[in-house]
Design a protein that fits this description.
This protein is an alpha+beta fold and 559 residues long. The protein has two domains: 2-197 and 379-558, no CATH class; 208-374, Regulator of K+ conductance, C-terminal domain (Alpha-Beta Plaits, 2-Layer Sandwich), CATH 3.30.70.1450. Helix content is 59%, strand content 10%. It is built from 22 helices and eleven strands. The chain has helices spanning 2-9, 13-31, 44-54, 61-87, 94-120, 124-134, 138-152, 157-184, 189-202, 224-230, 273-280, 320-324, 358-368, 372-375, 380-395, 410-425, 437-459, 463-469, 473-496, 502-512, 516-526, 530-558, and strands spanning 208-214, 222-223, 236-243, 248-251, 257-258, 263-268, 281-284, 298-304, 327-333, 336-339, 351-357. The longest helix is centred in the last third of the chain and has 29 residues, at 530-558. The two termini are 51 Å apart.
């Protein structure tokens, strides 16, 4: 039975894989258990690793270190690829207010951490771990660990211990902060629902179809190309024309001539509707089906861009209207409808609404690809090229005044920044950045599971001793303060001064702590998309700041 002993207690590859697999499998399964409607999810992998580490199950140190860092890279890179497209747009309009409040939560957490460090004398490395656990931010834990290792050439296990101790009550503190704000402001959930519904009615987004009758003498007998020059800068597409003279419907092109009382089918945005209505004449009620009569050859079809050579090309460069007599009226990207103007840059996975004859639409379908199977193929070149560039960026030392040791973004910050940039601008360099949601989620979950399992196994041996004999139980209270103080302060500011809707505020609180369980609770309470929208708005910047702040705390206090 020596093989059993070697498998369970040895140092071979089989032993290491077995221990990691057990930690991850059992931890994920336990993480599905809900207590008061809240589950800890993949974080239970960390505690399962601590449990096995405490009972003497170990993995080779070098292998453990490699898998921990590689898992962290996979996780932050996948997060960056997911949030990147919305990272820059999140600063527009109301997003600026939400992001500024989220930044306030991050900075207050750092300030609270520093104050506790000064008062109690707990090492900053430990406090960085407690802070990361208190705000439930795993990449911040990885950044703090690596920054400490870069300075001293050895790890500090109290970073992971602080994280593990503070995490459970961190989740509770986030939800408790939401409840306290609700109680203090006497929030009426039905009233908040009505406010959200009214706001959604006032602000419609994306591409809007609308019909007009031409009444402006200034455009009588002018071509659409001439009209477009007069309306330069506005987002709109004239899709079809109903000629009043002969009662026929045709696909509009640059040479189509507008006459008095002709009807036009326009795709535009809510911001441009009033201007376009004033320019063309008057809006008419005409169902979309009326624009494709039963005796007409015109059809409308949704086509997916799946040919990699089209990635990064402008829609106007394809000259589809001139060569094939079709109109592309809308482009759906990541669930949002956009007006398909000539300057719009195509990306793999875009869904186009094409209108024209069946023959022409079939031809254009071939041009775009429209192969769902091709979309399901993983684009590994972009992923590993991005990781390569991320590791290089993370290894570059940056010198800042007042810090004696150069600052590095590390294996958490570097890949995160590169992933955000590639997902947003990669198409300009012919990089295929499209990844199915399931593929991205798989990569992300595998990465975070490996990271947490390795952290737990390495910290498990001293966990109980730290809690019982070294005052680790007090870290729970300090972590709770780091969780709740910033959330309550900014929550009150957001509600009282900025009049934020309570559901939006819940999403802001969950997003500023990058906490999925808190988002799940918010969604269940709200019953609408408001928490998810604000969560997604602040998540990218918050994730970046959490990683950076954890690293900078180590560098400022040790370098």
């Amino acid at each position: 039975m020596n093989w059993v002993n070697d498998l369970l207690w040895g140092n071979g590859i089989a032993h290491s894989i077995l221990i990691l697999a057990v930690v991850i499998a059992v931890g994920i399964q336990l993480g599905k258990i809900k207590i008061f409607g809240v589950s800890l999810g993949v974080t239970l992998v960390l505690f399962m690793g601590i449990l096995l580490g405490h009972f003497g199950f170990h993995v080779d140190g070098e292998l453990l270190h490699f898998l921990k860092e590689f898992g962290l890279i996979l996780f932050v890179f996948s997060v960056g690829m997911q949030v990147g497209p919305g990272f820059f747009s999140s600063f527009k309009k109301g997003g600026i207010t939400l992001n500024m409040l989220a930044c306030g939560i991050v900075f207050l957490a750092v300030a609270t951490t520093i104050v506790i460090h000064i008062i109690t004398g707990i090492p900053m490395s430990t406090m960085a771990g407690i802070m990361s656990g208190a705000v439930t931010n795993t990449p911040g834990l990885g950044a703090a660990q690596q920054a400490y290792n870069d300075i001293f050439g050895k790890p500090d296990e109290t970073i992971a211990l602080g994280y593990a101790v503070a995490y459970p009550l961190g989740v509770v503190g986030i939800i408790l902060s939401m409840l306290l704000i609700r109680y203090f402001f006497r929030v009426n959930l039905e009233k908040e629902h009505k406010q959200i519904e009214e706001s959604e009615q006032e602000q419609s987004h994306g591409a809007i179809p609308i019909s007009f009758i031409v009444k402006n003498p200034a455009i009588f007998n002018k071509t659409i190309a001439q009209v477009s020059v007069l309306l330069e800068g506005l987002e709109f597409v004239i899709s079809r024309i109903y000629y009043n003279e002969n009662h026929t419907i045709e696909i509009a092109d640059a040479n189509s001539i507008l006459h008095e009382n002709d009807r036009i089918f326009v795709i535009t945005t809510d911001q441009n509707i009033e201007t376009i209505k004033t320019f063309f004449g008057e809006e008419i009620s005409m169902d979309r089906k009326q624009w494709i009569p039963t005796d007409s050859e015109l059809i409308s079809r949704r086509v997916i861009v799946t040919r990699s050579e089209l990635n990064g090309k402008r829609l106007g460069d394809l000259q589809l209207r001139r060569l094939h007599g079709i109109n592309v009226t809308r482009l759906n990207r990541s669930g949002v409808d956009l007006v398909a103007n000539r300057s719009l840059t195509l990306q793999l996975g875009d869904k186009l609404t094409v209108v024209g004859s069946e023959v022409a639409v079939n031809k254009v379908t071939e041009i775009f690809g429209n192969s769902q199977k091709r979309l399901n193929e993983p684009n590994l070149v972009t992923i590993f090229l991005g990781i390569t560039l991320g590791v290089i960026l993370g290894s570059i030392p940056f010198v800042f005044p007042g810090i004696p040791q150069p600052v590095k973004l590390g294996l958490a910050g570097g890949p995160l920044i590169v992933a955000i940039l590639i997902s947003r601008f990669g198409y300009r360099y012919k990089l295929i950045t499209y990844t199915t949601l399931s593929a991205n989620l798989m990569l992300r979950e595998v990465g975070i599971a490996l990271f947490l399992a390795c952290v737990g196994l390495s910290a498990g041996e001293g966990f109980v001793d730290t809690i019982v004999n070294k005052g680790g139980y007090t870290w729970i209270g300090y972590g709770f303060l780091i969780t709740t103080i910033p959330l309550l302060i900014i929550g009150f500011v957001g509600r009282y001064f900025f009049k934020l809707n309570y559901f939006t505020l819940m999403g802001l609180i969950a997003g500023s702590t990058t906490d999925p369980p808190a988002l799940a609770y918010s969604n269940a309470t709200a019953g609408n998309d408001a928490p998810a929208v604000s969560y997604a708005t602040v998540y990218p910047l918050t994730m970046f700041l959490r990683v950076l702040s954890a690293q900078l705390l180590i560098l400022f206090f040790y370098a």
